[in-house]
Amino acid sequence: xxxxxxxxxxxxxxxxxxxxxxxxxxxxxxxxxxxxxxxxxxxxxxxxxxxxxxxxxxxxxxxxxxxxxxxxxxxxxxxxxxxxxxxxxxxxxxxxxxxxxxxxxxxxxxxxxxxxxxxxxxxxxxxxxxxxxxxxxxxxxxxxxxxxxxxxxxxxxxxxxxxxxxxxxxxxxxxxxxxxxxxxxxxxxxxxxxxxxxxxxxxxxxxxxxxxxxxxxxxxxxxxxxxxxxxxxxxxxxxxxxxxxxxxxxxxxxxxxxxxxxxxxxxxxxxxxxxxxxxxxxxxxxxxxxxxxxxxxxxxxxxxxxxxxxxxxxxxxxxxxx
Length: 322
Prior knowledge:
Elements: E1 10-19, E2 22-32, E3 37-41, H1 48-55, E4 63-68, E5 71-72, H2 77-81, E6 84-87, H3 99-109, H4 114-127, H5 143-155, E7 161-165, H6 173-187, E8 191-195, H7 199-205, E9 208-213, E10 216-221, H8 223-226, E11 232-240, H9 248-256, E12 261-266, E13 275-281, H10 287-296, E14 299-307, H11 311-319
Parallel strand pairs: 3-8, 3-9, 6-7, 7-8
Antiparallel strand pairs: 1-2, 1-4, 4-5, 9-10, 11-13, 11-14, 12-13
């Protein structure tokens, strides 16, 4: 069965998976169009790995459907897998093989034509920066280079979809940057869905984020939108202009009276003679109003900074059971 033209690269509908009395997925539904890099997030046990196993045909669902390039994964898993490159978290490799031997072996399994095989191996070796490692045993490579070999085997048959499970797990900071850049390059040509616990990787790599919790989808948006909340927080520090001590209640009343401000609390600071405030606002950014009011009251504005919500903040808010 061939890929269906115009179909989403991934289409998951009402996907449910039970392991005995435990429900890993509860009616999960989402689509991923062609050419998108998606971060797939969730706490341990949320159902990420189960979803990936179903998409790659390694596990069946209890109910619902999953399709890759328009091909139902359960009805025709072999045809669906032809469109998929998969890098598991454990990245199993034959350590006694040389890199070239291993890629030859994968090419045979993937049934890459003989007249195309050497060209394709050369292309992925160059793309994954393995040129100097081609004649070395995999068992002698660093963790970073092993990840590169794992990515090379995943894209060797030129799939349209790349599924990555914790691709930077166990890497040092330099290796993480290298693999991140490589994934970003691959994402310019392929659809990529990447599961990771490193949220900064998603912000630096993905154009879309899916967050699941307890087997259900709880967020589907861009990293930018997920780190923008309605309103926000300002940290404001003011000081007297003429040396006369400031009255805390007076400054608090002034800030509370601004139409954009919803709440004002004291904020501890170390500047002698100055006062600090945590200013919550629920609508428009009040920084201009704060500045004008401070000047009007003949005070000095020493500091005003806006707190930006991180993807980690959003993740914890959506997945915490507290």
